[in-house]
Amino acid sequence: MFVRTRWRATVLDDNAQEWFEALARRYAPALHQHALWIVRDPHVAEDIVQETLLRLWTASAAQAAPAKNETATRNWLYRVAGNLAIDHVRRERRRARLLIWVEPPPDPLTAMAENSTDPALLDALRRLSARERRVVHLVCVVDLDHAAVAEAMGVSEGNARVILHRALTKLRALLSPLEVSCDAG
């Protein structure tokens, strides 16, 4: 099987192809959820997952992908997807400053709020920075430990703990008197 990259076709042997396909099936939904958590647009999140998997494919063919260690590969995937999502958010902020004011497109969190039983939580999550939402998602939803979150975000474990602590503190203040916690926090 091969995929055409920018200038060349990349060929993987059958074992590598099976490994890639298994990873894609296993992690694509979680990566989509992680990217959606950051960018808040399901179509952009799909594009981010596709780009993440393409980078895994090309890195595997170039022998530059993380070892076939499941944990290292999972953390690498979350890191790449998270970085792509953050890059998208930054690009959109720059673009928003350049454009003449127009009505913003519908926010997926707004649609979720209409169907959610806890709109206060959705509102509080909207108030967190993209980086804080990312850590909260990885710890409380994906259930990664602090070391895995740190590796996925490209920060130290201590920094990941600080970001999580600050995000949970903000959520507690915003949702008071409701209790905000997650197992790792």
Your description of this structure?
The chain has 185 residues and is mostly helical. It has 2 domains: 105 residues, Rna Polymerase Sigma Factor, Chain: A; 80 residues, Winged helix-like DNA-binding domain superfamily/Winged helix DNA-binding domain (Arc Repressor Mutant, subunit A, Orthogonal Bundle). It has a two-stranded antiparallel sheet. The chain is globular and about 55 Å long.
A few lines on this structure:
The protein has helices at 14-39, 42-61, 70-98, 108-115, 119-126, 130-141, 146-153, 157-175; strands at residues 2-4, 9-11. It has 185 residues and is mainly α.
Which outline best applies?
Answer: globular
**Looking across the biggest beta sheet, what order are the strands in?**
1-2
- Provide the CATH superfamily of the largest domain: RNA polymerase sigma factor, region 2, helix turn helix motif
Number of domains: 2
Ranges with pLDDT <50 over ≥5 residues? 1-9, 104-113
Number of beta-strand segments = 2
So what's the CATH class of the largest domain?
Answer: Mainly Alpha
Roughly what is the average pLDDT, rounded to an integer? 79
Question: Using only CA atoms, what is the Rg?
Answer: 18 Å
Structural classification: mainly alpha
Distance from first to last alpha carbon: 43 Å
Number of helices: 8
What is the element string, with H for helices and E for strands?
A: EEHHHHHHHH
Q: Name the beta content range.
A: under 5%
Proportion of helical residues: over 70%
Second-tier CATH architecture of the largest domain: Orthogonal Bundle
Any idea of the CATH topology of the largest domain? Rna Polymerase Sigma Factor, Chain: A
Main beta sheet: strand number and arrangement? 2 strands, antiparallel
